[in-house]
Design brief:
The structure is a single chain. By secondary structure, the protein is of the alpha+beta class. Helices cover 14% and strands 25% of the residues. The strands form 4 sheets. Strands 6, 7, 8, 9, 14 and 16 form a 6-stranded antiparallel beta sheet that branches. It is globular.
């Protein structure tokens, strides 16, 4: 039995709360034009006459998303590129100043508790998984008519049909239904240079990771949980670099091609005291898993009722 099969939750390990899901995930589709034309997506307004993106997504064959409830200790950042840690926390602020004043320092403390002595910088954080957007209306991101939905699809105070500002961290975005990795190696280095200024060259000589920290703010996640892929099961040759163009910054993500060998997991009914950490980059070449593809997915038979929530996602640069 190989390591991935040994580490994965097995039927014999099942707890009453285990809830594996069978679903189809959205992957980028390979096109011959990528040999001469790099895939891109405008996250802000596209130039006149330019398509908002030049690639397509399509649903995969059915895949199993394994529930790790009761087996969280089997997974860690070095071997799988994701990890669940517990941090009991009281009320989490829902306004920007409160998050920056009271919540961000607790996340720094959390990361330093699993990596003592680490230096941590939080960047480009935002509320996530709330209202949702049209794919495109005249190449602009437009809010759809808000509706009360269970769990992650919730409501917003923005008016329907209004153009949104993606630089606003309090803008509540829909769950992302595409398998992706937020930062390529090139983009990770750019992030250090962008955020650390004169210290960047010194810091780039040390091991650094970009770790995303995600949790719901109040209620357990019932409708659109985050699925994470065991980073040791991806093939580097299947990762397609995609430019992400915003008004004030250009980044680069990685979109994996579908591979039946990828192993997927999620935490059923994740609560605010259960923090999901997943790596989008690790400069250490010797670890088994250097990045974690991820996506939200619609959970079957969620039984979510009318509770609704948003989560907050914090990308952090972490130096040894």
């Amino acid at each position: 039995m190989d390591r991935n099969e040994q580490d994965a939750p097995r039927p014999g390990d099942a707890t009453p709360d285990r809830a594996d899901q069978n679903t189809r995930l959205n992957y980028i589709q390979w096109e011959a034009k990528f040999r001469t034309e790099k895939p891109y997506e405008f996250i802000s307004q596209a130039p006149e006459g330019c398509p908002r993106k030049n690639f397509t997504l399509a649903a995969s064959p059915e895949q199993t998303i394994h529930d790790i409830r009761g087996n969280e200790e089997l997974f860690n950042l070095d071997d799988h590129a994701f990890q669940v840690v517990r941090q009991e926390i009281g009320a989490i602020p829902t306004e920007q100043k409160g998050i920056e004043r009271d919540y961000l320092p607790k996340i720094v403390d959390l990361l330093q508790s699993i990596d003592p002595g680490a230096e941590v910088v939080v960047f480009d954080w935002r509320s996530a998984a709330g209202c949702y957007l049209e794919e495109t209306v005249n190449d602009l991101p437009i809010l759809r008519d808000p509706q009360l939905r269970t769990s992650d699809y919730t409501r917003t105070t923005a008016k329907a049909g209004s153009v949104i500002d993606l630089n606003d961290p309090m803008l509540i975005l829909k769950p992302v239904h595409a398998v992706h990795i937020d930062q390529s190696p090139l983009a990770a280095t750019r992030r250090v240079n962008h955020h650390m200024g004169a210290r960047a060259q010194e810091l780039l000589q040390r091991r650094f990771r970009i770790i995303n920290v995600w949790r719901p703010l109040r209620h357990p996640v019932t409708d659109y949980p985050l699925a994470v892929c065991d980073g040791s099961t991806i093939q580097p040759q299947n990762l397609i670099a995609v430019d992400h163009v915003r008004k004030n910054y250009q980044g680069e993500g990685l979109y994996p091609l579908y591979d039946e060998g990828m192993k997927w997991y999620y935490l059923h009914r994740q609560t605010k005291d259960e923090v999901l950490l997943f790596k989008t980059f690790d400069s250490a070449e010797g670890v088994k898993a250097r990045c974690c593809p991820h996506t939200s997915f619609r959970q079957a038979k969620s039984g979510g009722g009318l509770e609704f929530d948003v989560g907050v996602e914090l990308p952090c640069i972490v130096w040894k």
